[in-house]
Amino acid sequence: MTASGYDAGRKPGTETLGGHAARQLLRLGEIAGLARADSKVYARTLVEALGPVAERPLHLPPPSDSFISDDHTPVEFSLSFEPDAAPTLRVLLEPGAGDTGPAENGRTGLRVLRELAGRWGISTGRLDELEDLFLPPSPEGPLALWCALELRPGSVPRVKAYLNPAANGVKNAAKTVRKALKRLGHRQAFKALPDGDRLLFFALDLGDWDEPRAKVYLAHHDLPAAEVAALSRMDGGPAPAEIEEFLRLATGADTGADDGPRRRPVRRPFQTCHAFTKTGSGLPSGFTLYVPVRDHAPHDGEALARATDLLKRYAIDPAPLHQALTAVTERRPEDGVGLVAYLGLAHQQGRPPRIMTYISSEAYQVRPPVAPRPAGAAAGR
Ligand code: TRP
């Protein structure tokens, strides 16, 4: 399989970040059933949105300490699955990854997002209304603005913007999110959110969505499964038993909540996303749970097995996920951990539940697998 254009002039040592990510996108596009012409447009868009860092040779360190991925590649792919359909390919990227600080990073992000939106006839009005809240003159990290593209057929993606609730400092995050929701007309929404340890992201759907969402992401450290199962606030959301089953499958029943740091000193928290569409009810119309499967599996072979079980449980063909891992890397899943970064379960009113799999680009680094046994068998690398 060639990835025309991006293979040209590809000699060892000359590979660039943009070339690497574009080639991954072209291959994933095929798996997601996109027409070649659409994939090519999207690959070019990705390279353009990355800007100058796309040209950066991969033998140099990452352009910045992007929080998008563990190895600081400012790109992450995901496949969203539902029964009886090809998976939807999405790409998350940080347009300001080459900038020196969060203020500049945010300005680049806005400029690129507006440029792309203009090209596709999409309004950034909802984002513009919140600019002063999330992009103040001296914002704090760990992100300023990320952009996600849902790569649907037809060469015009659906667009999402991700903002930092802690842009004005962690202690002001709740106030920032409350104000943002209010400005968008969701006056009661903040009150509806469950408790969390931290507000992680604030996201907006831009453009041609049936029901554009405003989404709030929360982190939940060390919460037992039964309590995680009670975090949904949406009407007609998932039954607790479904969430517990998802957790069991995604973590391998190794939630880390009660068995201490057996495998890893630090596990990333579970995350929940609460999506608001209607301004009337005050309640979210969507709930998503994310499990950092890479912190609950010794290697990606195991993460892939978990994802496979999960997809089958939802009567979804897991083959595209297996193909996707082969598409993004030549390494064996067993030889690292983190290629599958998160597994997600999304419920949104009026839609069937979806399973999301987040796939790392690994442009810079592969995290070594966890040694299978403390003694005996060879520890791998
Ligand atoms: N890399 C960050 C994290 O691991 C942010 C992030 C990237 C993320 N993709 C995600 C968070 C998917 C949840 C789901 O937290």
Automatic annotation (TrEMBL):
It comes from the Bacteria. InterPro entries: ABBA (IPR033964), ABBA_NscD-like (IPR017795). Keywords: Transferase. One of its GO terms (biological process) is alkaloid metabolic process. GO terms for molecular function: transferase activity, transferring alkyl or aryl (other than methyl) groups. This is Prenyltransferase.
